[in-house]
Amino acid sequence: MCDYIFYSDNPADPTDFESRVYCERAAQFWVQATVTTHNSRACTHHLARIVREIEGASKNTIQAYKNGEEVPPTYLRWVVKDGKRLPRLFLSESHNWAYVTVKPITRNGR
């Protein structure tokens, strides 16, 4: 099942869990943020929308970190610089600056 959410009854209140309906199409892609912990399954119909949503969440997290705001500790990587352990949002040496990766889902679900 795809993780794209429709709001059936009350679209003005996204916290109303009763109004959430997931897309019934089979998920064919795993969309994963490279910077944050935003991950989702996507069908071919909603792939672009889910990628844009996750990419936006990653960009917002990076901007908040640059502005000095606190981000959840799961988004931080620890680096050692001058003998001190410092938090960094991501290691520029270890990823290709992409906000999102998309991988096909295989038969065994991975």
Question: What is the structure about, briefly put?
Answer:
With 110 residues, the protein is an alpha+beta fold. It has one helix at residues 47-66, and strands at 5-7, 20-22, 29-33, 39-42, 77-81, 84-88, 100-104.
What does the model show?
The protein has a domain at 5-69 and 96-104. The mean pLDDT is 78. 18% of the residues lie in helices and 27% in strands. The radius of gyration is 17 Å and the shape is globular. It has 110 residues and is an alpha+beta fold. Strand 5 and strand 6 (84-88) form a beta hairpin. It has 1 helix and 7 strands; from the N terminus they run E-E-E-E-H-E-E-E. The strands form 3 sheets. A 3-stranded antiparallel β-sheet has the order 4-3-7.
